[in-house]
Records
---
Amino acid sequence: MSVLVYIEPHKGNIKKTSLEAVSYANKLAELISSNVTALAINISDEGLKAIANAGADKILSVNNESLSATNIKALAEVVNSAIKEENATTIIFAADGTGSSVAPYVAAKQKAGIIAGTIDFPIIDGNKLIVQKNVFSGKATALYSVDTAIKIITLTPNSIQISNTKRSPNVISFAPTFDAANGVVLKSFKIDEDIAKGGIPLADAELVVSGGRGLKGPENWGIVEDLAHALGAATACSRPVADADWRPHHEHVGQTGLAIRPNLYIAIGISGAIQHLAGVNGSKTIVVINNDPEAPFFKNADYGILGDAFKVVPKLTEAIKKLRI
Ligand SMILES: Cc1cc2nc3c(=O)[nH]c(=O)nc-3n(C[C@H](O)[C@H](O)[C@H](O)COP(=O)(O)OP(=O)(O)OC[C@H]3O[C@@H](n4cnc5c(N)ncnc54)[C@H](O)[C@@H]3O)c2cc1C
């Protein structure tokens, strides 16, 4: 019996969220006296080293170009195949990228209990895993327990530190079986270049600069991008901004978008509706820039700047650039 951790394909590189998932699996294995097998799909040798360091005892390395991030059913079959191979009883996914999509398929096939989006290490109670997650749009936390024979947990990005274990696991080349009767088709898809390009992936980012409808239109996004560039941050946006096609949908954070937990979240011209807060209120520090003193976001901010974004943001960017010289 082992803890299996899913490492998703990411253009050969390894995502920070995948290393967090390995670190989580490592801690869990320690608690239940088990060991960790990482299922690494199309990961470079450098990525495999990082997985070892984060706490894998064994790595099943799958190399198959048809297994792109868009081939969810096939990725789920790879995980099912690895569960059988390893006799795994707990499977950990990062709750971003393909992890959140693949995990439910695996749960259905394995008749496993699944807890999506935990924010902390589990508590062990006999055969039960007790897991903490945010509820009510992040206004509260709740404990959920799962006691099925196979258990699946997905981990919210930026919830735990990456471990540094300096292990030297066996790397075994793994050729999974695919169940054609399940409608699994192996084919290459072209990943949307618009999504693939750009700087830091939002889910991995420690610093995020985000813009809302207060920016008036897409032509004004230069000030958001300049600030993000000066800080080395990723960019995000509120939902109406993505709905209006001012920004791509993969930047939309909130209840119906991505949930993120960066160290710093700077919200520019965003009112702070509860549906927006649901995706960002796990951020360690929140800075709000808004010209309305009644904007609800100020109540959730660690630092608030009351002023016109078009005047404040360029000044902030200049000040940061000077500090960085
Ligand atoms: C079921 C459901 C799900 C939803 N899911 C999401 C979600 O996932 N994510 C999300 O973001 N929203 C979501 N929403 C929408 C949400 O309720 C809000 O409507 C939305 O977040 C508002 O976006 P905003 O703050 O950019 O725009 P607005 O509410 O229009 O706020 C703009 C802000 O900019 C400020 N401003 C204006 N001009 C300036 C200036 N010059 N300088 C500085 N500040 C300025 C204003 O004072 C205002 O506070 C959802 C809604 C529903 C009903």
Note: Confidence is low (pLDDT under 50) at residues 190-197.
---
Amino acid sequence: MPESGVRRVILPARYVQGSGVLSQLGSHVRQYGTRPFVVAGRTSFSKVKARVQASLLAAGVPVVAYDDSVGECTMAKINEIAARADELDVDVVVGCGGGKAVDTAKAVAEKLHVPAITVPTQCATNADGMADAVIFTEDHRFVQDLYLSRAPVLVLVDTDVVARAPPQYLVQGMGDALASAFEKPAYAASQRMKKAADQATEAALEVNLRCFSVLMAHGLQAKKDVEAGKVTDSVEAVVEAIKLMSGFGFGGGGCAAAHAVHNGLTIIPGIARKHGEIVAYGVLVQMVLEKRQMGEIERVMRWCKSLGLPTRLRDLGEIDRGQLLAAAEKACDPTDSMSSMPFAVTPRMVLEAIEEVERLGTALS
Ligand SMILES: [Zn+2]
């Protein structure tokens, strides 16, 4: 192994985003197979089912079968769908829906050794272009991050579809994407220090910076536009930041303190927020841990507040001091991504950083 390690990214071969592009699905699918199988969640699929089927039929590659029963992305569900699709001689898998549906579809495609295509119906996740599937139990307990040999061959994002999902999804996606600009540089620095086998690419670091500036410039406008039912340039820019840029930026590893803080906080039963919202709070904690300039922290905090992302503990839910201590300890678990920070972080440091965020958040409100 050379001392400089290996730089590696796994990317989708094609990314198509725009208003109404769902009608192009069939002509894209036809380039990869003739027997498409659709994997979806029931509610999300009901909104696009007619258009998906019509586009595939018009292109001469009608749906062989579909499974819209994905609730959680579990190994049992992946195996069950893969067995059925295998019997049907499926040669391309289309995942349609949120993170759980597309993750299930990608894992099914991997099992069958056929290409995966993802068609997101909302923006809470950047899972669509990633070469992994996050596996849960039936009752939503994390099992593993299953690494796949390749990313989907196509990510098709119809902005008319994703902009019609509840606006909170877009905000959650922005919260998660925000983390890429902070966690990836921290991860990259720690990998360099460790002379680790896997090193971040310059390209990913650069894309993350651009992702951050797009979120800062267009985030609030995009939320307002989606609330008003409009697909504007700001909406397009933010959707790209979430779906393409943050996926590219995180690809190949890249979580650090923000996701570790999320993983710690989610052991508390009273936490009432979603993944991207808690991660955004974790970004604020990471910024304090990194001793970033106060003006920089306040800028991100104001942005979070303007979007309705949590900036104080009370925004996250019911938390007592004992639970907070347990969460800080969990965040520093050696198997978690806190170990990707370029300096050692203790539970005490996490608690102090949370207290500092609390102080700043209260002063801002
Ligand atoms: Zn995340």
Note: The mean pLDDT is 95.
